[in-house]
Amino acid sequence: MKDAGQRRIHLADYRPFSHRITQVSLTFRLAPEATRVISKIAFEPNPGAEPGPFFLHGEELRLVGARIDGRDVTPEPAEGGITCAVPEGPFVWEAEVEISPATNTALEGLYMSNGMYCTQCEAEGFRKITYYPDRPDVMAPFDVRIESDLPVLLSNGNPVASGPGWAEWEDPWPKPAYLFALVAGDLVNHPDRFTTRSGRDVALNIWVRQGDLGKCAFGMDALKRAMVWDERVYGREYDLDVFNIVAVDDFNMGAMENKGLNIFNASAVLASPQTATDANFERIESIIAHEYFHNWTGNRITCRDWFQLCLKEGLTVFRDQQFSGDERSRAVQRINDVLALRARQFREDNGPLAHPVRPESFVEINNFYTATIYEKGAEVIGMLRRLVGDEGYARALDLYFTRHDGQAATIEDWLKVFEDATGRDLSQFRLWYSQAGTPRIGVEESHADGTYTLTLTQETPPTPGQPDKAPLLIPVAVGLLSPEGAEVVPTRVLELSQPRQSFTFEGLTARPVASILRGFSAPVIMQRKLSAEICAFLLAHDTDPFSKWEAGRALAKDLLVCRIAGKPASEAACFDALEALLRDDDLDPAFRALTLSLPGEDDLAQTLFDAGRTPDPIVIHAARRAFRGDIAARLGETLARLYDQMVTPGPYRPDAKDAGKRALRQAALGYLSLNDGGARATAQYRRADNMTEQLGALTCLLDIARADDALEAFRNQWRGDRLVMDKWFGLQASMAAPDATETVIGCLTEDDAFDWKNPNRFRSVLGGLAANAAGFHHPSGAGYRLLADWLIRLDPVNPQTTARMATAFETWRRYDADRQGMIREALERIAARPGLSRDTAEMVSRILGD
Ligand code: PHE
Ligand code: ZN
Predict the structure, then answer these.
(1) Is residue 5 predicted with pLDDT exceeding 70?
(2) Which of 256, 308, 839 to mutate to test the pocket of ligand 1 (most atoms within 8 A of CB)?
(3) Does the annotation count 419 as an active-site position?
(4) 831 near 795, Cβ under 8 Å?
(5) How far away, in angstroms, is 726 Cα from ligand 1 center?
(6) Got the DSSP string for 246-303?
(7) Residue 221, phi then psi, degrees to nearest 5
(8) pLDDT tier for residue 1 given thresholds of 50, 70 and 90
(9) Which residues contact 642 (CB under 8 A, 6 or more apart)?
(10) Whose CA is nearest to atom 7 of ligand 1?
(11) How many C-beta atoms lie closer than 10 Å to residue 832's C-beta?
(12) Active site residue: 108, 122, 285, 291, which one?
């Protein structure tokens, strides 16, 4: 792979830093275009490092002056920072630099958002604040003084003193610079308190702009539940006197776990019943928990280097998924997690951006905050837990926390803890961290003389830079059902370690029906051809909720694939099975809602491509829509009953029970609207007193017609609310009909409210376009051109968000020669831009595969 002249960083080149830091003191004199940062840092030689030149990172800084032990020094400029001659023993470094937060549109380092100062330092943003060894293995206690006339001045740790125009903070826990944070603004707080298990009294605050104070209660409740959960399940307590959360309008990601001062994208914390949907509430709960859980998995124990990113992210995603499963429904949580994994990680793993959970090299680390690091990273931990058992996992985690507290650790450290705690040899298992690609599992079955034999095969296709794959250790959870539908062999975890391996089950007089990969026990693709009858049987009888849902999914997918190919297939069994399930009132409404949602267009495109066909997004879109129409026609009566039955009495509550009912009701409405001309949706839109039902109704109206009046009314009602307006933009972009997409995107991007420098707004429109498969892939190529134009415009302003959005093109090799040609043109046009950011340049060249 060529790097367009860019420097590539390799895991194998890791060297410890020449020095250690015993204390960091920072003073900020805030001013929009001329903030002064004065640093005083106590260094001492690192006995574990080879002596070398003293290098500090620094970017976009104006050095005012530097001193060592009180004497002026003149550092030498070096690539990405400075070098300086230093004493042999310990010394104190002082520097004063000037930076300009007001013109920092990249939203990395210290920047301004709506008059408020805030920071984002992960991964390598601290070097835009002052000269520093900006690497996670250099950990130090920080004290911070902020000088500004703004009323609220926050940093990490505990507040120590404040007066008019200044505040001082102290963080006793050694931390890497990427966890540093500062906030200054005209903010108000939603306060609360929490007492930890051992009796520490903690002040909790969510800081927001004046008008948003009514949107904090749910986030605060989620935070307290997360704190209790981490004490109960992992024995982890909070370790400071205050925990602050700040909501920011301009933010590249969801949120950031800065020690004691989490900074959140407003969309990931603010919610009220009127402005947020059930899905928003659920996401907020999981992100609040995720960032809180980082306090131990990420902050107290951090990563040695950025190649170990999954050490904190995979584990913390795993923990937030466990939390959500415990707080809500475990089955529904698992299905949703698998849906997200397949939609994002499988897509990544089967294209040009495939990379291992622990990559071996990168050009820009910001490009590796991926579904593979996060979601596959979490799956790998789930497999580990299955292999060593719940108790083994608990022992290993206890050992991890005691052994590595206060350290910057590696994946080797992590696996060693499991080996030491359980005695298990994990040498084959560790391949999950180094080998990219999604394994394909083949299935052969036989039954004779009371013995059922299950033969499993595994094969991982080649990925960029990894042509040959070794067999992995794959936990495959299997249960067996009798032909009558009774569970005859309860779930057992088979350990598939060979390319081909047989497992036998004795004492089975009749040939059983196998339920394979229960709970989605490994992130693999099953290549098991199941007849419609067996799928319907499993859908009706499987005791494992994931596999039950999966059987229905497979059934619907097979039929959709037949329709796309214009092949006739008998669909009656599918409709009957679906109807029986919908009428089963013992089943959780949220689960039933999931069985009503068909595989998405992107999923179908990948399925066709895997089967050796060339997907046509327009054909897929039409076939899926026709299938929905037929379901609506066949099951109309049942769906109408569900719509009437699934009302939630009383005021809106965002809990899983009510949300599940609303989800089923909405799923029913989606089908019913195809037949009733939007009558129910119109009535629901008028009556709705919460955003879930209002947006749900609007979605249905938009699905069947242009719905200009409803869109206008919605806009007038919500023009003052940024987060709701993001929905207004996103809905239209993602639902525009294929032929109208170019026009719709044109209108949206010309709208006065299209503030394209705000990442949420940019994503709602251009991300909406990318999610609209048939519109994006319209044969005119207009979708590709539009996206490329906007990426070219955004790149100089915000490289991170540009590079991330360029992944819309990652599936390009699936499509026909015309589309491939047009996408290549779009990518090459981006690549040719003079001054293109390192982020986007790396991404585009990887997607192109050159
Ligand atoms: N570390 C953050 C999280 O996962 C994500 C993030 C990465 C945020 C980089 C900002 C920048 O919670
Ligand atoms: Zn995280």
Answers:
(1) no
(2) 256
(3) no
(4) no
(5) 21
(6) EEESS-SSSEE--TTEEEEEGGGT---TTT--HHHHHHHHHHHHHHHHTTTBTTTBEE
(7) -65, -40
(8) very low
(9) 582, 592, 664, 665, 668
(10) 122
(11) 10
(12) 291
